[in-house]
Design a protein that fits this description.
Length: 373
């Protein structure tokens, strides 16, 4: 569907819902919708990023297909959400690379990076990549610490710039100033919604995903993925502090803080991403946007491979296979980092920003966009 057709369909569906209002208790989308009389593209992008595609409003809707109104809120908002990822991506050209062939592009990128790292370490490192490490678990004998720090530091900087660029585009379009984003009460409310996954709770009975039956499965797999990712990030931060702050070099003991955080985080990511993929594979196809499948699965696959290769690296760090596992893990992690601003990860950024805006709007009672009630 062309973008103008998609926007027109979004406007049509939201106008019908705004007259009906049966679903107003289901999630943040409907109260936010009710504050509006018309639905400009920026409003639709905002509502689409408030939606998490649970499907509850679709299964409850008396106007859903085969009714002639053919109202399908999750599908149209998923399509608009996908278009918003491309619209706000910075630099825009990179988004097109991962747009239609997200899974293949990401896997090809990961393989190329692994091969490049393998070649670089074979050419430059003091001992061969397949030799047993002189000191058990000595990663820096395979890839020197300076090379690792510079490569990942540079990639992280580019990724942060791209994510901030995307966020600024999204927020500027919403019409809110940067000062309003920094309102503590709105940030607190959005953070509470995100950390508890408030809207996947379905008011206690869980989400109608992967089908009309309510269940907590998506919430739990999402929690494992989200907190697994945060624990892995925390492990890297603690390792960096140990290295630069205290001069303690890796490898760290099995019961050290970075290894415990990394193991717990990696295990959470492994189970969480496998579960999310399973739910996605059996989900109701009437609600899905097939064009976005590649992008969604690419992110899940790279997260899964990151945790799998990380845990294998940990398990085999004292064997001759350590060098090989290390370059594979680093290549996969770098591919994950490079694709973050152009894939499903941005859902977290825009959804977070949409929830902050929702908290701000709720603090302005009686205001319908464009006029006072
Ligand atoms: S999804 Fe259907 S039932 Fe729900 S508000 Fe919209 S039109 Fe009404
Ligand atoms: S699919 Fe779920 S989150 Fe999206 S609008 Fe419907 S009820 Fe809300």
């Amino acid at each position: 569907m062309r973008l103008d057709e998609l926007i027109a369909e979004g406007e049509r569906v939201m106008t019908v819902c705004n007259a009906c209002r049966y679903c107003e208790g289901y999630c943040a989308v409907f109260p936010a919708m009710e504050r509006r009389l018309t639905f400009a593209p920026a409003d639709l992008n905002y509502l689409a990023n408030l939606c998490h595609g649970c499907g509850e409003c679709y299964y409850a809707c008396q106007y859903a297909p085969p009714h002639e109104f053919a109202i399908n809120v999750p599908k149209v908002l998923t399509q608009i959400r996908g278009a918003s990822y491309r619209q706000y991506a910075w630099p825009s050209g990179f988004a097109r690379l991962f747009d239609r062939n997200g899974l293949i592009s990401s896997l090809v990128l990961a393989v190329c990076l692994v091969l490049a790292l393998l070649l670089a370490s074979l050419v430059s490192r003091p001992t061969g990549v397949l030799d047993p490490p002189v000191k058990p678990g000595d990663f820096y004998a395979v890839v020197p610490h300076g090379v690792m720090a510079w490569a990942f530091g540079l990639v992280s900087l580019l990724v942060v710039m791209a994510l901030v660029g995307g966020f600024l585009r999204f927020w500027r379009e919403s019409g809110e100033g940067l000062k309003t984003f920094a309102q503590p009460f709105a940030l607190r409310a959005a953070l509470a919604d995100i950390t508890k996954l408030e809207y996947l709770d379905g008011r206690g009975a869980g989400c109608t995903y992967p089908d009309a039956q309510q269940s907590q499965a998506r919430r739990w797999f999402h929690h494992l993925t989200f907190y697994g990712f945060l624990l892995c990030f925390a492990a890297t931060c603690v390792g960096t502090l140990y290295h630069y702050g205290f001069g303690w070099q890796a490898p760290y003991e099995w019961l050290s803080v970075p290894v415990i955080l990394g193991t717990l985080g990696g295990t959470g990511l492994l189970i969480g991403t496998a579960g999310l993929y399973w739910l996605k594979s059996i989900s109701d196809k009437a609600l899905a946007d097939r064009e976005q499948n590649g992008m969604d699965i690419a992110f899940i696959a790279l997260l899964f491979l990151t945790s799998l290769t990380g845990l294998l690296l940990l398990g085999f760090r004292e064997t001759a296979a350590m060098g090989l596992f290390l370059v594979v893990h680093l290549g996969v992690v770098m591919a994950l980092f490079l694709t973050l601003p152009y894939g499903k990860f941005v859902h977290g950024i825009y959804r977070g920003a949409a929830l902050v805006r929702y908290a701000l709007e709720r603090s302005r009672p009686g205001l319908t966009m464009g006029r006072e009630q």
